[in-house]
Structure prediction request, 826 residues.
Amino acid sequence: MSVCEILSVGTEILLGDILNTNSRYLSLELAKLGISVLRHTTVGDNHERLAAALTTALERSDIVIATGGLGPTADDITRDVCCEVMGFEMRMSEEIADGIKAYFDSKGYEMPESNLRQAYVPVGGDVFENHNGTAPGLGLKKNGKCVVILPGPPYEMAPMYKEYVVPYLAEYSDGAIVSHTVRTMVIGESAMAELCADLLENENPTVAPYAKKGEALLRVTAKAQSEAEAEKLCVPVVEEIKSRLGNYVYGVDSESIEERVVELLKEKKMTLATAESCTAGYIPKRITDIPGASSVFGCGVVSYSNEIKHKMLGVKNETLEAYGAVSEQTAREMAAGIRRVSGADIGISVTGIAGPGSDGTSKPVGLSYIALDAGDRQVCEKIETGRNDREYNRYVNGSRALNLVRIYLEEKK
Amino acid sequence: MSVCEILSVGTEILLGDILNTNSRYLSLELAKLGISVLRHTTVGDNHERLAAALTTALERSDIVIATGGLGPTADDITRDVCCEVMGFEMRMSEEIADGIKAYFDSKGYEMPESNLRQAYVPVGGDVFENHNGTAPGLGLKKNGKCVVILPGPPYEMAPMYKEYVVPYLAEYSDGAIVSHTVRTMVIGESAMAELCADLLENENPTVAPYAKKGEALLRVTAKAQSEAEAEKLCVPVVEEIKSRLGNYVYGVDSESIEERVVELLKEKKMTLATAESCTAGYIPKRITDIPGASSVFGCGVVSYSNEIKHKMLGVKNETLEAYGAVSEQTAREMAAGIRRVSGADIGISVTGIAGPGSDGTSKPVGLSYIALDAGDRQVCEKIETGRNDREYNRYVNGSRALNLVRIYLEEKK
Prediction:
């Protein structure tokens, strides 16, 4: 099996200015080709350190995919350093230079002179067109080693990878890895791992547990000569895990709980509406991350203030006064209210204290109530994460509210 | 200046299952201590490769911070491998074992036996308590080299870093790096860099441009013996950049446009409400990422369907029929409508085609209209990103709508 390393280039990553999402994207994609990723490395825009990192990566691996540092500015050195290490000469491509000029023309801007740096290509190397920016990608193959150079911005890198790099790497793709992820909620990672302790000893497929923002996941990964064979190794193990973990499992290979919920709503031809306090838009944002969600989702109200909870959702002022905004009663009235005003089949609501500050009462940060009203069923759950982590609390509240919808729809005849 | 490398451990990162956010967090924090981060490395849960990566990292650097692989399961080997490479013996700590048991008791769960792996500590090393999970962190110092081992989940890692690791690294913190980021919108990266071309040649402070989801940024970074001296080096350069880039600049060191808008709303004592179609909750989600946003934001409506645009925001059916949902007229009526129904001072709206599919008309993916209604001013802008990238389009639409609020508030007397 061919072995690959991913080399990210950019001082802005080492300074923490930007999050490295490219390495993750490429890892997921390379696995589909049956190419093992054994290391991610990030170095800054520094000639010596980049050259050293590339040199040692090539000693260990068949393929190195470098991203970033192809921009028009003087600190963008990846192109030059990779060609130097691999022993390729550079020349200016008139064709690419014209393409860059045309790109700026089409946007109605004048091309800054510095953009011509991006028109230099390796003699004897391959050039990958950039349909979403100006820097082309490059491919260098020599003595059985392969270096692929891609632009840093994810919206330029990902389409280029799909179109050009997948076929470019075909000769290295001599087997297949198939992975399936069983996703659970409510149960914790340790408890889940205990229930599957014997399976974690498996060699092929391997079974690995991990925790992720309020979820516990088991990843089943098989390697084989073909995708079909690898798939066949996975199936019985995934089934065994599902039967052991029961209703904690919300999906297998669902990208997320929101994807699972949109899928179920479409299947049952039902619609959902959301009423949110602390999550404030996070749930509809997640639902509409799924293309085509408009057939099952039409309306959300963010009622961050009590006034809006009353005015737009019909939560009674007496309820807010007697129990407070963060209470079972308010959550239930929000869910019923959004169902009524939107005309959707199912209304869900969240009200809670996400932190860092409390809400001025004695209620703890991390406390939330989530409710569902589907006409034929009303449910409310209390959540106490015990954590003062605003993003975590908001995310988990949203997931758990969507999980109420998932359970309701799965049980509905 | 001391030099550090960050070593992430976890096959789930190399498979692409999880995004490595810890390296970014630690990079930002280490810069504050004046410790240079020269490399990020990720390796899998593999004894040999982890040992090799740690050994070479220690040859190049004073400090290595390893995260991940401290869990309770058999593939969690970081603790053992780091102690082996640094030459520390391990022993079981009864005290930590009792603490882990108490943690499970407090949550009402029984402790899985495997969790006791987390109670092993290095003889002569330091132990960092985990207040948000069961795995303690570890510190190993020997022969001028330092290895810090932290748990992988960010909500365990970050508080532990702040409480224990910052003082633990004090002896390595012999200078300071100060960075400021000038953030712009509407102008592109190349054009921005051209306007500041001479500054990009600076050595201290360095000035580096980069692009980020519809924004162009310039990072000014100075190194000096003290924070105050480094700050002094930055100030004139930041001022020069601001005067060259004018109104494109929406903030310096604002974490984001939403942070800037919340700050301005508080300053002017005004409130904002949102009406969204394609962004569907993304704008209020971003606004309420900022703790304390409740004093300036109380209401948002996600009107994903035309029915809801009419029913809840009062967009005229004739407007929707004549011009369509994605039109200047609809955007303007949505902004006016949300301002009216919410009672907020300023209403903003977004309606557009985020992709991947079109809306069934001949309008292109990437087309959006954003509008602002503040009573004394109404504005509408057309955006054409030219990209079929749902997340990008939704994010940029939100940013540009918030930018309308920023400009309105900055100009308001």
User: Anything to note?
Assistant: The first helix of chain A runs from residue 11 to 14. The two ends of chain A are 47 Å apart (CA to CA). Chain A touches chain B through 109 residues (CB under 8 Å). The first strand of chain A starts at residue 3 and ends at 9.
